[in-house]
Amino acid sequence: MIGLKKLNKRKGLIKIYQTMLNTSLIFLSFILTYFLFRELYYILNDVLLGIKDVHEIFSKILIFFLYFGFISIIVQYFKENYHFPIRYLLYIGITATIRFIIVNNGESIHNLWLALVILVLTISYVILPSTEVKNNSRFN
């Protein structure tokens, strides 16, 4: 009887935390959406005014896609029933690193290290689905 009361209290506490998390994520998604559209305005403004600095425009496009990626993470969290699979984080890491290499005009050795990061993330991405399939088949 006492164990059942503790279990009900824990479930209630988990539900409160889940509600707080969901509310915070929804609020964060509204803030990120505002910044996404603000960045889109800046990009369009630069294009229409004829800004010639391509790297500056690419930097703003990179920021735009970062906001877009974060919003996508939040949407995916709700689609997956309050769970975010690691494969999406790997995918976002790969694409963000590629975008950074495109915009980055620094030393080539840094780009080599970033390419190695992409290789490691890609290998992890390829290996991960086979382990996820095995884990999911145990529960069916």
From TrEMBL:
Coiled coil: none
GO BP annotation list: cellular response to phosphate starvation
Keywords: Cell membrane, Membrane, Transmembrane, Transmembrane helix
GO cellular component: plasma membrane
Membrane-spanning intervals of the chain: 20-37, 57-78, 85-103, 109-128
Highest taxon in the source lineage: Bacteria
Protein family membership: Belongs to the PsiE family.
Name of the protein in its database record: Protein PsiE
